[in-house]
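Sat 14:20. Reprocessing the chain from the morning session after the first attempt stalled halfway. Input below, unchanged.
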Amino acid sequence: MLIHSFPLGALQTNSYLVCNEQTQEAIIIDAGANPSPLLDSVGDYEVKAILLTHAHFDHIAGLNEIRKTTGAPVYLHSAEEDWLADPNLNGARLWTMVGPFTPSENAEFSLEDGQTLDLAGFKISVLHTPGHSPGGVSFQIGEHVFSGDALFAQGIGRTDLPGGSHQQLIDGIKAKLLVLPENTTVYPGHGPRTTIGNEKLSNPYIR
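Finished this time. Tokens:
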């Protein structure tokens, strides 16, 4: 497995290209603005899916371009099925200073907690980790977890946006993420990667 990280757009949203060297297939996790660096790195890999940890505007700003270029279907939790087209729900109306928002078509597939996706030769566990947003999910692939805006290195996602809940976020992190092996690498929606062990030891928000 090869994991490439691309901090994209004004908010430096991490988008990930996860490649399977054996099958020459890949998945994309989150779709930040101006995704040319990510798309240029796809090369000969066939992108099988675009997985969204949630549908806040900074995680979907490049979705139309990525969809058009790769032809890959989009996966999003059912609680946010209307967010791709609605700037009131996805927060774009609150952040007009970072650029115009272009609505996207609905996701082709809905995600639910506990699902296992078989994509690009990977077994991907869907972990519902709401609180930053109602449909926030994390994706676990072996010893790697992509936590979106739930868990950061030394931090957690903000909960003052529509549909946010601090208690729900903390509960979800503890129930779904902190139970993973301590050597699990965490790839967050913003900032550097970390490990579950590091966050259990020193993250001040989840002690």
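Residues 33 and 62 are 4 Å apart (CA to CA).
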